[in-house]
Amino acid sequence: MRFLFLLLICVVFAGQMLGGEYTQRQHDLMKRCIQLAYQAKARGNYPFAALLVRDDRVVLVAESTVNTSYDPTAHSVVNLIKIASRKMNWSELRHCTVYCSAEPCPLCASAIYWAGIPTLVYGCPATLLQKKSGETFYIPVRELLGRGTRKTEVIGPVMEDFAAYSHEDFWR
Ligand SMILES: [Zn+2]
Question: Does the pLDDT value for residue 166 go beyond 90?
Fold first, then answer.
């Protein structure tokens, strides 16, 4: 009985830490997103990727192409939203979730907000990336998105270890 009680406390606490409900399907989608981040790195780019998901199905995928396109703003989420704006009706974005292999930077978080995407799931926390990269341009994504008039649900960090490992040998 005591074990069950402790288990319940842990589940509730974990749910609060994540900022929302995190399902097995979301876990599988995040796994795919992080695998894409590994692919981006293999192609000579920064190890970041993003998925656009509607009704638990992947609609679009994008990677960082900062290095290969020589564009410092070609972050995975910015790329994703640019593809979406060409291929989809804008109003559809209001029914989508964006998955990011890492906590979005202020540029990407702003793009999510202005695209009107109501839900974000992210993997590796930005604070962990800071330690690896030495870069410090950090506004917690919940804080930044929390300043918007519209509410954006944020779930994360999730699969931190797998997500962080994609950065393991990158920032040197
Ligand atoms: Zn970014």
Answer: no
Report whether pLDDT(2) > 80. Answer: no
Ligand 1 centroid distance, CA of 5 (Å):
40
What is the distance in A from the centroid of ligand 1 to the CA of 109?
Answer: 7
Distance 103 CA to ligand 1 centre (A): 9
Q: DSSP of the chain, one letter per residue?
A: -HHHHHHHHHHHHHHHHHTS---HHHHHHHHHHHHHHHHHHHTTS-S-EEEEEETTEEEEEEE--TTTTT-TT--HHHHHHHHHHHHS-GGGGGGEEEEEEEPPPHHHHHHHHHHT--EEEEEE-HHHHHHHH-------HHHHHTTSSS--EEE---SHHHHHHTTTTT--
Q: How far, in Å, is the centroid of ligand 1 from the Cα of 56?
A: 23
pLDDT in tens, 125-146: 999 888 888 877 899 999 999 9
Closest CA to 79 of 63, 101, 98, 100: 63
pLDDT in tens, 21-53: 789 999 999 999 999 999 999 999 999 999 999
